[in-house]
Write a structure and sequence with these properties.
Blueprint (H helix, E strand, L loop, with lengths): L2 H24 L4 E3 L4 E6 L9 E11 L5 E12 L2 E5 L1 E6 L2 E4 L3 E3 L4 E8 L12 E11 L6 E10 L1 H7 L4 E8 L4 E8 L7 H8 L1
Antiparallel strand pairs: 1-3, 2-3, 2-12, 3-9, 4-5, 4-8, 4-10, 6-7, 6-9, 10-11, 12-13
């Protein structure tokens, strides 16, 4: 066998090993999210009984690299016409097992969670009035000096929907339609929580 042929084979093997090592261990990749299947604007709580509004969405977060990504924080910046508001309190998980967002490892296979974004406690409430909305999901990775936008979504609330949202215990859902590649909205109103016996006694007293 020619020594040049053996040398060429050895170089090719070394090159393939180097590329494999780079793809597996060294390539940083990036954090990506899928199109949220559902988005909710409205009061917090299982019965929409909170005094402050929140934004909820469900999506898959995944890394384009084998090594994965460490997510430090996640928040939503929402624009309505000329108004801007950040929902910076991040809570994630599944129903009945929610956690305050304080770091999350995102593997290449991805993780699917419910994500709840609340207003800061020292800020005023944000009313979902009629208008065009731009919702930006913004992530901060460990070791990164800047945040980057994972997704930008355009939504609309019409006058009739805004009038309903002004009522208590009322929110609006945006469901993703894969055929039309757009969101379809509907209003949801939850019954008010009935007072317990203790509350009734207090009212009577």
């Amino acid at each position: 066998m020619s020594p040049w042929f053996s040398f060429t084979i050895a170089c090719l093997a070394l090159l393939i090993s180097g590329v494999t090592a780079w793809l597996t261990f060294f390539r940083k990749g990036k954090l990506v999210m899928t199109q949220p299947t559902v988005i909710f604007f409205g009061p917090d709580g299982s019965k929409f009984d909170s005094s402050k509004n929140k934004i909820y969405l469900r999506t898959l977060l995944y890394s384009t690299a084998k090594r994965g990504q460490v997510l430090e924080s996640l928040h939503i910046s929402i624009h309505r016409n000329e108004t801007k508001q950040n929902f910076n309190i991040w809570v994630y998980g599944e129903k009945g097992n929610l956690k305050r967002g304080s770091g999350l490892f995102i593997p290449q296979e991805g993780v699917t969670f419910d994500h709840h974004f609340l207003l800061p406690e020292d800020g005023a409430n944000f009313a979902f009035n009629s208008g065009s909305y731009k919702l930006a999901v913004i992530a901060k990775l460990v070791g990164s000096s800047a945040c980057h936008e994972l997704s930008s979504i355009n939504l609309t609330i019409n006058d009739a929907q805004a009038a309903q949202l002004a009522e208590s215990n009322t929110g609006i859902y945006f469901d993703w339609g894969p055929d039309q590649q757009s969101y379809h909205s509907h209003i949801d109103t939850r019954p008010e929580k009935e007072p317990d016996i203790g509350q009734l006694l207090e009212i009577m007293a």
